[in-house]
Amino acid sequence: MHARNLMWILWPSFLMAGGASAIVFALIDPLDVVFLGHLQASRLTVYTAGFFLFWIMAALSSALTLRIAPRGVELDEFGDPVE
Predict the structure, then answer these.
(1) What is the DSSP secondary-structure string of the chain?
(2) Residue 14 has pLDDT above 90, yes or no
(3) What residues have CB less than 8 Å from 66, skipping those under 6 apart?
(4) Are 24 and 33 within 8 A, CB to CB?
(5) Rounded CA gap, 48 and 78, in Å?
(6) How confident is the model at residue 76 (pLDDT cuts 50, 70, 90)?
(7) 54-68 residue pLDDT tens
(8) CA distance 43 to 14
(9) Alpha-carbon span 34 to 32, nearest angstrom
(10) Do residues 13 and 59 lie in contact, with contact meaning Cβ atoms separated by under 8 Å?
(11) Across residues 61-83, what is the average pLDDT?
(12) CA–CA gap between residue 20 and residue 53 (Å, rounded)
């Protein structure tokens, strides 16, 4: 995978994770989140885990979009199609 492809995947997904975290945690108090019925984590732990979960989900979505996008025609340095 090229560095440019990683940039196209990770940067938009990072921005979306930040936005999703802001929206979700504006509505949900992290201290109200309980795991497996009795495990309660600190606010910072829930914020961090939520952000990375949103980032992974958005990155998978971006990667899938990039994977199924049609490939363009390769051009030479003069803008002519390469055969």
Answers:
(1) --HHHHHHHHHHHHHHHHHHHHHHHHHS-GGG-EETTTEE--HHHHHHHHHHHHHHHHHHHHHHHHHHSPPPPPB-TTSPBP-
(2) yes
(3) 5, 8, 9
(4) no
(5) 48
(6) low
(7) 999 999 999 998 888
(8) 20
(9) 6
(10) yes
(11) 77
(12) 10
As given in the structure block, the two tokens for residue 82 are 């390469």
Contact at 8 Å (CB) between 40 and 34?
Answer: yes
Count of Cβ atoms closer than 10 Å to residue 46 Cβ: 19
Q: How many residues does the chain have?
A: 83
In this structure, which amino acid lies at residue 66? Answer: L
- Cα–Cα dist 51/56, whole Å: 9
Average pLDDT of the chain, as a whole number? 85
